[in-house]
Structure formats: C-alpha cells, structure tokens
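Sample intake sheet
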Amino acid sequence: MVESGRMIFLGTYKHTLDDKNRLTLPSKFIAKLPKNIYVSKGFEGCLEIRTPIEFEKRYEALSQYSENKKDARNAARIYFSNSQELEIDSAKRILLPNELINAAHIAKNVTIIGVGNKIEIWDENQYIKFQKAITPMYESIVEKLDESTK
C-alpha cells in the first residue's frame, strides 16, 4: 500500500534467526524496501527497520531539539549509537548485529510486524507478552488519542 509516495508496512509474520544471526524478511516487506535499510533499537524492547527516507525523517525530528538541552543530546546519542545501516542480501536477509540483538533481548524466534512507516522486530515471547498487556486497552488508547487531537 502506498499513500502519497510513502511506504505503508502492514501485517504480522513469524520468522527465525539463523545460526549467523541472519533474518529473512517477509516478501511483502522486501518488495517495498531498498537494498540498504536502517535498523535501530526501538521502544518497548523491539528493533525498528526504517527506509533511508524514514530514517532521515527521524534524524530531522531529533535534530529539531536544541543541542543545549541535555535530554536532546541524550536521546540523539542513544538513538544513533544504537542504529546500523544494513544491506539486504540476495536471499532477502539482513545480518543483525549482536549489539542490537542483545539490546532487544532477541532469541531465535522473532515476530516481525508492520507499523505503518516502519517495521518492528520482536523476540517472539516478548511480543506475546506485549500483545497480552496492550490489546485489552486498544479501544481506550484510541479514545485518549482522539481526545488529545481535538
């Protein structure tokens, strides 16, 4: 799905890391991704995959904060030091660096989800726990968000 030239990533997929920490990406995602992508430590214990365009938007958003503010410096340090540019190989795999695997507590089995402008990689068990905790609150979360935009 493309909206005004933007890639929209959807769906949930189960995959496995191989012994060399390579992860095969879902075919539906591969069709939308360039050869080089960015993988970063995300929130709630996942990794995020962004296209170069979306990674640059993230950079622009973080760089709008004043470097005179300690929180701005720390957010940039944490985000960019926990990001890597990776290449998708001919077998549709990425090689996840050990540092990012450890940061997200990823074991062998992973859940890969589309989250609109990015893709998230979760340890399978962590994602199950997240889903059980957050799914019952979905409607109230949407209501709060709707109220905050009025």
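Comment: Residues 140 and 146 are 10 Å apart (CA to CA). The first strand starts at residue 2 and ends at 3.
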